[in-house]
Every structure is written in C-alpha cells, then in structure tokens.
Write a structure and sequence with these properties.
Layout (H helix, E strand, L loop, with lengths): L1 E3 L14 H23 L10 H4 L2 H8 L7 E5 L3 H12 L7 E5 L4 H10 L5 E7 L5 H16 L8 E5 L4 H8 L4 E3 L13 H9 L4 H13 L9 H14 L4 E6 L5 H15 L7 E4 L10 H6 L4 E8 L16 H4 L3 H18 L4 E6 L4 H22 L10 H10 L6 H6 L10
The structure holds 6-O-phosphono-beta-D-fructofuranose (F6P).
6-O-phosphono-beta-D-fructofuranose (F6P) binds next to α4.
C-alpha cells in the first residue's frame, strides 16, 4: 500500500503535524523499529504477528480444508479477531468465489436463526475459530450450529474445521471427533491473526490465493525500516499518533470500496483493543465511501476538530457504465461509469475536508485483490504496533474486556463473580413512555 499524509500536515490542516515535528518524531520511530525488530527476531508475544508471512503454511491450510473445499457455503463461528480476519478477507474477495461466506459472531437469536435457516447445511463448511476455546459467544453459536446440522440429518463432523489453541474445550472436541484442525499460532493476539490459519482457513475454503495474500504481506514487511519516511505503515502509525496528540482523538476509517466495509470493522478492533489503555488511545470510527458522504461527512467537515479521516482507495476495479439519460440535469452522468463517479466522489470528499482544514490521510491500493489485501492487513498491523510503541502502552493485551466476560458468566450461573453482583447495583433514573 502507498500512504499520502500530505493533507494531515500543519500547513493545511488543524489539527495537523508539521514536517519538522515528523522529522523529530522519526527519531522515536527509529527506536521503536529497533524494539519491533528485536521482538520479531525473538518471536516475542505480539511482535510474532509480524512474522506471519514467513510462518503461515498455505499447504497445511489447504490440506486441512480439503474435505470441505468445494463447499457451497461457509459459516465462520468465532468472534473478535477470530472472526473479523476471515470475514474481511472473504468479503473483500467475494467476487472471486462461488462460496457464500458468512460469520456467526454475535449471539442475537433472530439473526443467528435467520442465517442458519438459509444455509444449505449438506454443503456448508463450518469454520470454528477460538484461541481460548472458551469464548461464550463462539461456543454457544457452535452448539446451536451443531444442533441445526443434527436436526437436518447432516453429519457435522464431516463439515467442520477447528482452529484453536493447543488446549481447551475446542481442542478436546476436535480430538474427540477426529476433526480436521489447525492451531492458532502462539504469540499472535486474535486481532493480529488474519494472516494465520485464523483468517486463512476461510480464504482457502473460498478458493482464494493464499500465497498472494502472504506475498502482499511479505512485501509490506520488507518496507519496515527505521524511518517513517521510508515505510508506509510507519508513516500511517506515526501520523495517526501525532494527530491524536494534537487533538484528533478519533480516526474514521473510510474505504471507498463496498468490499472493504468489514475491513473497517477489523481495523476498529485492531486499533481500539491495541491502543485503548492507560486512558490513552485514538477512537476508531467505521464509515464507508461514498455512502457516508450523505451522513457523517457533515460532522467530519463542520463538527469538532477532533478527527483524522483515513481514506482507502483502489486504483483499479470492476466498472460499469451509467446509461444515457434524457433528464437534462443528469446528462453528465450518462457520459460516466460508476467507477468514475466513485473516484470523483472520493477526490471531492478528500478535497472538501482539506478545504475545511480537516486532517485526512490516503491509503492507496492498486486494486482489491489477495496481494493488495495482504499488504493492507499487514500494513495496518505494523502501523498499530508502531503506534503502540509510541504511546508506550501494552499493545498486545486486552485486560479491560475481561470484566464484562466475568459478569456475563456470573449472571448465567457460571460461577460466583463480584462483577455480576455489581450489575444489580446499576443507578437508575427511568423515563418511561
Ligand atoms: O479466539 P478467542 O479466544 O475466542 O477470543 C476471541 C476474541 O476475544 C478477545 O479475546 C477479547 O475478548 C479478543 O482479543 C479475541 O479476538
């Protein structure tokens, strides 16, 4: 990916960062890069994620999914990083696959039931993913999916792939039923695991080019260097950090490609769960171009000066002509294509923010394919790791999510948890209809 940070410079944006400030910050980037390189070399927890282009084995993944490789449908049962990597890849590349891929991450009963009713279970692959093997949503949804297969008279053990840690309930299940299984790699937090079996099993079932995904990531890894001016990922991570420090407390991720909508959700977990610590961290917002020009753009352009807008664009892509029209005021559309319209809208929106002095950055892909997607995922992961070094936070842990898990378990009778007791102490001021 290429990065253009020109519209985030203090000469054109407020908040903005001056070139001189970036040059001073580059000294910290060099130190951070040394730390990252050492962590990668030692396979340290978290930094190991940036080794995945060399660690992930496409042949092993293809061999494992072979029993369900021709599936008409794929359901990934997981949550957070155990679902979003797979969902991002399969959505971004859906046009190139005949397999209908969905994720069951949430436990909304109507939503889960509606999805299950639509699946051709006899020709559906089930991709169950959980590092811990104990995540309530994932286990609950798996039990519901398994029951649906049994009710339909389909042998779920013939349709299920498990990706989990070396031990835990899912590992036990895979051994008890001799299910094809892969391991979540050690030292790779879920939100950084898209380029491992966690995200790549789904890609394999859908017939995507695993080597191209990893090659794109490897090419991005090659750019990691001691200067933000030589490394697109570090340029993005450092600029986001510097803008947050100058008041851009939020970062709106706005891909101009419908196929990258889930990528924004993946980015939101990566950025929030990695950097949101010690009262620090930049809040990720999920948006989509051109759609959000008709909604959130008003706030981005005329609301508080507390946001960075990150655009993701692709140079090439499928196009479609707009038919001629006799509606005089719309005749200009008949000479264009939908792709030209989308590109014009992106450039107009980018310029609209620049004209209002609102900082924005452009992430440029050549096209949305496996190679470019691998580079984007790896690049954002590296940007996040760098930002975590600059913030001085523990990028790779997520202790703040545990309180609600304990409360949930306590509320369901899964043990005695003071967190569950606290739920009953909610302060109330009800205003009823
Ligand atoms: O893979 P697991 O253990 O089911 O965890 C799923 C997700 O839950 C979290 O641990 C947060 O609760 C994420 O970091 C992770 O991606």
């Amino acid at each position: 990916m290429d990065v253009d940070i020109g519209n985030a410079l203090a000469s054109v944006a407020s908040p903005g960062v001056s070139r001189e400030s970036l040059e001073r910050l580059d000294e910290q980037v060099a130190d951070a890069h040394e730390r990252i390189e050492a962590g990668m070399a030692d396979g340290e927890h978290g930094y190991e994620a940036l080794n995945l282009p060399d660690r992930t084995d496409p042949d092993e993944i293809r061999r494992t999914v072979e029993p369900v490789a021709d599936a008409e449908a794929l359901v990934t049962v997981g949550i957070g990083g155990s679902a979003l990597g797979a969902a991002t890849i399969t959505e971004a590349l859906a046009a190139e696959s005949d397999t209908e891929a969905i994720s069951l991450d949430n436990v909304d009963p109507a939503w889960v039931s509606n999805h299950l009713e639509r699946l051709p279970l006899e020709n559906t692959a089930v991709n169950v993913v959980s590092r811990s093997g104990t995540t309530a949503e994932t286990l609950a949804n798996f039990l519901v999916v398994r029951e649906a297969f049994e009710d339909a008279g389909v042998d779920w053990t013939e349709r299920t792939i498990v990706t989990t840690g070396e031990s835990g309930p899912l590992r036990d299940l895979s051994e008890r039923h001799d299910l094809p299984s892969l391991s979540v790699p050690d030292g790779v937090p879920g939100r950084f695991s898209a380029l491992s079996a966690v995200g790549m099993v789904a890609a394999a079932v859908c017939g995507h080019d695993l080597e191209a995904l990893l090659s794109g990531a490897a090419a991005e890894a090659e750019t990691l260097s001691g200067s933000l001016f030589d490394c697109p990922a570090y340029a993005y991570g450092a600029t986001s950090y510097a803008l947050d420090a100058r008041g851009a407390r939020m970062n709106a991720m706005v891909p101009y490609a419908e196929s990258l909508e889930t990528y924004s959700e993946w980015f939101a977990q990566l950025w929030a769960e990695s950097l949101g610590k010690d009262d620090l961290g930049q809040t990720p917002l999920r948006a989509l171009g051109a759609t959000d020009q008709h909604s959130q753009l008003q706030l981005y352009r005329a609301g508080p000066r507390d946001k960075l807008v990150t655009f993701v664009t692709s140079e090439e892509g499928t196009d479609r002509s707009i038919p001629e029209t006799d509606v005089e005021d719309l005749a200009y559309l008949g000479d264009a294509t939908l792709g030209e319209l989308l590109d014009a809208e992106f450039e107009a929106t980018e310029a609209s923010l620049a004209a209002a002095g609102r900082p924005n950055v452009r992430l440029e892909l050549e096209r949305v394919d496996e190679y470019e997607l691998g580079g984007l995922l790896y690049g954002m992961e590296a940007a996040c790791v760098l930002a975590g070094e600059l913030y001085g936070v523990n990028t790779f842990e997520q202790p703040a999510v545990e309180w609600a898990k304990k409360a949930t378990r306590g509320l369901l009778g899964g043990g005695e948890f003071e967190e569950a007791d606290a739920v009953a102490e909610k302060s109330e001021l009800r205003v009823e209809r």
